[in-house]
């Protein structure tokens, strides 16, 4: 039965466009409450440093850094430094991100 489920997942993923696959990955990322809150804050602030978001969400800096790394790999944010601080800004060239941001802001 596991092989059948695995096969079904493979068939479904083969039928999705690259943009749809990226949308699924982003939605999976946002299934985590902390990452969802981070993205929601970023939609309002756009540019935030790791320590600022950690303070606002009462989460460790290292945990926030790991979450931002996931966002960076998905193409949602771009990293830059402000002196010693590591900061992130939302990526401007991501159509999927535009769609997700409309969903979040509609709430």
What features would you describe in this structure?
The protein has 107 residues and is of the alpha+beta class. The protein has one domain: Arc Repressor Mutant, subunit A. It is 66% helix and 14% strand. It has 6 helices and 3 strands, in the order H-H-H-E-H-H-E-E-H. Strands 1-3-2 form a 3-stranded antiparallel β-sheet. Helix 2 crosses helix 6 (95-105) and helix 4 crosses helix 5. The chain is globular, with a radius of gyration of 16 Å. The N and C termini lie far apart (39 Å). The mean pLDDT is 84.
Please estimate the helix content. 55-70%
CATH fold-level topology? Arc Repressor Mutant, subunit A
Mean pLDDT: 84
The beta-strand count equals 3
Give the topology string: H per helix, E per strand. Answer: HHHEHHEEH
* Full CATH superfamily name: Winged helix-like DNA-binding domain superfamily/Winged helix DNA-binding domain
- Estimated radius of gyration: 16 Å
Work out the helix count.
6
Largest sheet: 3 strands, antiparallel
Parts with pLDDT < 50 across at least 5 consecutive residues: none
Please identify the structural class as seen in this structure.
Answer: alpha+beta
CATH C-level name: Mainly Alpha
Count of structural domains: 1
- Globular, elongated, flat, extended or rod-shaped: what is the shape? globular
Which percent range describes the beta-strand content? 5-15%
């Amino acid at each position: 039965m596991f092989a059948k489920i695995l096969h079904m997942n493979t068939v479904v993923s083969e039928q999705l466009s690259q943009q749809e696959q990226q949308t699924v990955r982003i939605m999976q990322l946002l299934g985590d409450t902390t990452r969802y809150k981070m993205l929601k804050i970023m939609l309002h602030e756009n540019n935030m440093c790791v320590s600022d978001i950690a303070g606002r969400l009462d989460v460790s800096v290292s945990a926030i850094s790991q979450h931002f790394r996931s966002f960076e790999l998905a193409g949602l944010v771009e990293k830059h430094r402000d002196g010693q601080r590591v900061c992130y800004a939302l990526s401007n060239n991501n159509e999927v991100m535009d769609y997700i941001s409309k969903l979040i802001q509609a709430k």
